[in-house]
User: What shape does this take?
Amino acid sequence: MEVTQGSRALDLLKSRGMLRLRDFIAEGIEPETLARLVRDAKVVRPARGLYQLPDTPIDAAFMCAEAAILVPKGIVCLISALQFHQLTLQMPSTVWMAIERTAWRPTISYPPIRFVRFSGWAMTDGIEPYPIQARDVSMTNPARTIVDCFRYRNKIGLDIAMEGLREGIRRHKCTPDELWQYGKKARVWTVMQPYVETVVSNVA
Assistant: This one.
């Protein structure tokens, strides 16, 4: 039975990338089986209750998926979303994640997460599921990500927001109209407008 559970646990990790303890329990795999796999170095536990194979390649997208598992109601945003959408050359060392304004802020040692607070429309508009490691990760879409970068420009830097804007327009990942719509809701369009008009004019 133990061998069977161990084999099933490894097969699940091979197909799904990473799993939480409760996911294994739902599949009939006991905690002691996982503990034995960890002791035998066949499985690693990068964070409490999170398991993956030791040879799993770790990149920015994988870290976003890990963060999404640990914070199910969180939204990957800002520089992390920019990097995922290929709108920046920045390689964030932390996962930028938004949580609801009144939500409890979890304490997580790995992956490193930097939280920001969203509320109201910001928790729903422009939020889409993106497949990473066989699971859907909630993330801001390209246009919404760029607007958020201008909104949080004092935290991440105007240069990063501008890079995202240029790449978004150049790669046709967003339209000026989409930026206007989200920019109006975020009350940042008056700041963005001259930059958007300049970039659109230069790209045209």
